[in-house]
Amino acid sequence: VVGMCMRRQIARAVCLELSKGKTLSHDRMRNPCMGRLTSCLVKNLEKGKLVMRSESFSSRHVLQALPKLPVPNLKDTLDRYLRCMKHLLTEEQFNKTQNIVMQFGAPGGVGELLQSKLTERSENVANWVYDYWLNDMYLNNRLALPVNSSPAMVFPQQNFMAPIDSLRFAAHLISGALEYKTHLDDRDLPVDYARGQLAGTRLCMEQYYRLFTSYRLPGPERDTLVAQESSVMPEPEHIIVACKNQFFVLDVMINFRQLNQRDLLTQLEKIVKMADNEEEQLPPIGLLTSDGRTEWAESRSVLMRESTNRDSLDMIERCLCLVCLDDASGPELSDTKRAMLMLHGGGLTKNGGNRWYDKPMQFIVGADGCCGVVCEHSAFEGIVLVQCTEYLLKCMIGSPSKLVRAASVSELPAPRRLRWKCTPEIHKLITSAADKLQRMVKNLDINVHKFHDYGKGFIKKQKMSPDAYIQLALQLGFYRCHGRPVSTYESASLRRFQQGRVDNIRSATPEAFAFVKAMTERKNSTKMMELLKGAITAQTSYTRLAITGMAIDNHLLGLREIAHEMKMGKLEMFKDEAYLISNQFILSTSQVPTTVEMFCCYGPVVPNGYGACYNPQSDHIIFSVSSFHESEQTCSAEFVKCLVQGLRDVRDLCNKCNADCAATEERKGQTQKPKKEVYLLLTNRS
Ligand code: COA
C-alpha cells in the first residue's frame, strides 16, 4: 500500500533522527499504519542491512569540508575603503572621511576593539556575516517585495494554441519541481563547483535546501526567514495554485502516491473551473503581500484574528511553491513587456493579485505564453534559482507535448479553495495595497536589450575577463549618460565558504574612472588601451578579493553591527556622509548567466538608480536595465543606448589596437625580409 515516495519520506525522517544521534522507537512515529514499515527500517539500519548512502548527508559533509569565511585585516579594509571612495567624493568630503577612518583604525582604537570581537564571533559561528548580512540586505528592508527586492527569471515566450496547453505546461513544470524536490530530499543533488575566476573550488549547497522549504514572514520591524524543519513524520506535501486571484490547495500526494503529470493536469483543470465560478470569488487577498513589509505585517495580524484566515495562511506558508495561472495580459509580448509582467504582474487590473510574494518560488504560467518564475530573494541567490529552473525547463523539453488528462478523474479529490473572511478593514487594506502596486506598475521603467554584436567569445579572444569587461562597459555607459562615477554594486558569490552568500565587487574603481574619462574625451587609442587594460586588471583583482572573502562591504557591516551589539551608539565612521554615499548603489549590477534560453531581471535598489542584470553568452549578451520613471535623473532606454555605444566603442578600440599591433608586426617582418633575400642571393651565388 505504501508508495515509493512515502517510503522515501519515512527513510529520510529516520535517517535525520539517527543522524542527530537520537534513538527511535515506534511511538515516535505518529502515523500508526506506518509503524511496521518504520520499525523494519530502523531494525535494518541498526543491523547494517540497510546502508545509508553518504549522499544522504552530503550537505552536512560539504558544510564541514568547506572553509569558514575569513575576517579580512582591518587596515587592508580601511585602505581599500578610502581608495574606493576617493574619486566618488569631493575633496572636502574625502579629507573629512580620511580623518575619521584614521581615527577609527588608530592603534588601540575602536576599530581594533571591534575587529577583535568580530574575530571572536567568527570562531563561534559557521559564518560571521550571515545573520548581519541577511538582516541588512533583506529582512530589515521595509520596501515592498515586487520590483524592489524579488527578481524574476523570464522564460522564452511559449506558444499556447489552446487554454489546455498552458495547463499542460504547468503540469510539466510542477512534475519537474517535484522531481527536483526529491533530489533535494535525497540529498543527491550534484555538488556545484566554481567556474570562471579561481575555478574548480567546491561550493556551498545550503541555499538549494531552502528553495521549497522557506517562507519570509512579515514583521513590524524586521521580517523572519522561516525554515520548515523536517518533522519526524513529514506531512503530505502540497502546492498552492493561484488562478483569478483565488488560491487553491493542490495536494501532490494522494493516497500515498505522488501525482503524475496526467493527474496534475486533471487537478489543474478542476482548479480553473472552480476559479471561474463567480459566485465563489473571494477578494484578491494576495495583493496584501505586495505591500510594504510593515504594512503587510499589520494586515496579516488583522487577518489572523479569524480562524478561517489563519488556516488559509498556514496552508500557504507551508506549501512547496506557488503556481500562478495568469490571464492573458495584452497583445504585444516583447522581452521588456514580459519582464515587467514577471516583476509586478501588471497590477490589479492584470495579474498583480494572482501572487503571494512571501513564498520563495512562484512559477508564472500565463495563458498568453508569458511564463517565468518570481523569487523571494532572502533565501537564496539567483544562481541557485537558475540551476533549479534550468533543470525544470530541460525536463520539459523531454516531456510529451500531448499530455492527456488522467482517466481516473473521479478518484482524485478536488483541490480546495482557500477561504478568507474579510472585514471592511481588510477590504480597505487590499484597496490601499492595490493602489501602491498600481503606482509601482506605472513607475517601473525597464528595458531588456539583446546585444547581438558580440559576446564573451570576442572578449575572451582579447584575453580579458568577460565579466570585468562588461562591468567596464556599464561604467562607461553610465558615465556617458550622467557624467560622473557612482557607487556600484556587483554581486560576488561567497559560496566557497560555509553558509556563503555574496559580497560586493565595487566596480567603480579609480582605474575604471580613468578609462571612462579617457574614452569620453577620445584620447589616443594607445593611451585608451593602456587604461582599459589597467581597469580590467583592477576589476579582476577586486573580483578575486571578493570571491575569496576579502572585500570590504561585509567587513564594514560586521564592524558596524558588532558596535551596535556592544551598544556603542552610532560611530562617526558609520555616520559619515561618505559611508552613506558608499551604500547608495545607484548602479546595482549582477551577472546571472544561463545555459537555457531565458533571462533574469530585477528593479533598482534606490529611487534614482539602475538595476542592471546581464547574461553573457558566447556570441551575445542579454541586458535587463531597470529604473523608475519618477526619477528625473534616470532613463533605462537612454542608459541602454549609452551602454550599447560603449560596448561598440570598446570593441572598436580592441580591434584597432589589434590591427595596429598586426601592422607593426608585419612592418617588422618586412624590414627583416630583404636581409633574407640578400642572404638567399649570396648563397645562390656561392
Ligand atoms: N582570458 C580569457 N578568458 C578568460 C579570462 C582571460 N583573461 N578571464 C576569464 N576568462 C574566462 C573564464 O575562464 C570563464 O570561462 P568559461 O566561460 O569557460 O567558464 C569566462 O571567461 C568567464 O569568466 P569571468 O568573466 O572572469 O567571470 P566569472 O565567471 O569568474 O564570474 C563573477 C565573475 C563575479 C560574476 C562570479 O565570480 C560570481 O560571483 N558570480 C555570482 C554572481 C551572483 O551571485 N549573481 C546572482 C546574484 S542574485
TrEMBL record:
<dbReference type="GO" id="GO:0008292">
    <property type="term" value="P:acetylcholine biosynthetic process"/>
</dbReference>
<dbReference type="InterPro" id="IPR023213">
    <property type="entry name" value="CAT-like_dom_sf"/>
</dbReference>
<keyword id="KW-0012">Acyltransferase</keyword>
<comment type="similarity">
    <text>Belongs to the carnitine/choline acetyltransferase family.</text>
</comment>
<dbReference type="GO" id="GO:0007274">
    <property type="term" value="P:neuromuscular synaptic transmission"/>
</dbReference>
<dbReference type="GO" id="GO:0004102">
    <property type="term" value="F:choline O-acetyltransferase activity"/>
</dbReference>
<dbReference type="GO" id="GO:0045202">
    <property type="term" value="C:synapse"/>
</dbReference>
<dbReference type="InterPro" id="IPR039551">
    <property type="entry name" value="Cho/carn_acyl_trans"/>
</dbReference>
<feature type="domain" description="Choline/carnitine acyltransferase">
    <location>
        <begin position="69"/>
        <end position="644"/>
    </location>
</feature>
<keyword id="KW-0530">Neurotransmitter biosynthesis</keyword>
<dbReference type="Pfam" id="PF00755">
    <property type="entry name" value="Carn_acyltransf"/>
</dbReference>
<protein>
    <recommendedName>
        <fullName>Choline O-acetyltransferase</fullName>
        <ecNumber>2.3.1.6</ecNumber>
    </recommendedName>
</protein>
<feature type="active site" description="Proton acceptor">
    <location>
        <position position="377"/>
    </location>
</feature>
<dbReference type="GO" id="GO:0005737">
    <property type="term" value="C:cytoplasm"/>
</dbReference>
<dbReference type="GO" id="GO:0043005">
    <property type="term" value="C:neuron projection"/>
</dbReference>
<keyword id="KW-0808">Transferase</keyword>
<dbReference type="InterPro" id="IPR042231">
    <property type="entry name" value="Cho/carn_acyl_trans_2"/>
</dbReference>
<comment type="function">
    <text>Catalyzes the reversible synthesis of acetylcholine (ACh) from acetyl CoA and choline at cholinergic synapses.</text>
</comment>
<dbReference type="InterPro" id="IPR000542">
    <property type="entry name" value="Carn_acyl_trans"/>
</dbReference>
